[in-house]
Design brief:
Blueprint (H helix, E strand, L loop, with lengths): L6 E11 L4 E7 L8 E3 L11 H13 L1 E4 L2 E9 L5 E9 L1 E4 L8 E6 L12 H9 L5 E8 L2 E6 L1
Parallel strand pairs: 1-6, 5-9
Antiparallel strand pairs: 1-2, 2-3, 2-8, 4-7, 5-6, 9-10
C-alpha cells in the first residue's frame, strides 16, 4: 500500500509592522475568487521551489513588498475530497522593504491589528491568526466536513 498522496502546497504570510502594530491584509472579492474576504497574502508553491522562497515570491507578487527572514509559524491543512491533502505553510514576517501595491489577486492595505475582527474576513481567519501567533500551537487541521462546516482542531 502506497503512503503517497496527491498534495497541494501553498503558503500564507502575516506581515506585521511591529512599530505601528499594523498588518497587511488582502481583500479578495467573491466575483473573482473561489473564496472571498480579508486574508493574509500568499499562494502556491511552485515545483522545485523552497517553501521560504515561495512565500517571499508570493508576497512580492501580491503586495509589492519584499520580506526578509520569514519565520515558519505553523501549518493549516485538510483532506481533499479526491483523497489528497491541501497544505498551507504559515509564515510571519516583520522585516520588509518596498511600497504596498495591490495586484490582480486582490486589494491590499495596512490594517490596525486590533481592527482585524471588524473586517469581512475569509473563512476561519481569526482562529488561524491565533494559531499563527501562539507559541504553543503549530497546526490548524480540518478533520472532516460536517453539516455545519468543518470539524477543526488546533495543535
Amino acid at each position: 500500500m502506497s503512503r503517497a498522496q496527491a498534495t497541494i502546497l501553498t503558503n500564507i504570510c502575516l506581515i506585521e509592522d511591529i512599530e505601528t502594530k499594523r498588518v497587511v491584509m488582502q481583500y479578495r472579492s467573491p466575483e473573482s475568487n473561489h473564496w472571498s474576504g480579508y486574508a493574509f497574502p500568499g499562494g502556491h508553491v511552485e515545483n522545485g521551489e523552497a517553501f521560504a522562497e515561495s512565500v517571499i515570491r508570493e508576497v512580492y507578487e501580491e503586495t509589492g513588498l519584499t520580506i526578509q527572514n520569514p519565520q515558519l509559524v505553523g501549518i493549516k491543512n485538510w483532506p481533499l475530497d479526491t483523497g489528497g491533502r491541501y497544505i498551507v505553510v504559515c509564515y510571519k514576517a516583520t522585516e520588509f522593504t518596498g511600497n504596498l501595491q495591490s495586484s490582480y489577486e486582490g486589494q491590499v492595505s495596512w490594517v490596525e491589528k486590533d481592527q482585524i475582527p471588524n473586517l469581512d474576513l475569509a473563512y476561519d481567519m481569526l482562529p488561524l491568526m491565533e494559531m499563527m501567533e501562539a507559541p504553543d500551537k503549530s497546526e490548524f487541521f480540518y478533520r472532516h466536513r460536517t453539516e455545519d462546516g468543518w470539524e477543526k482542531e488546533t495543535f
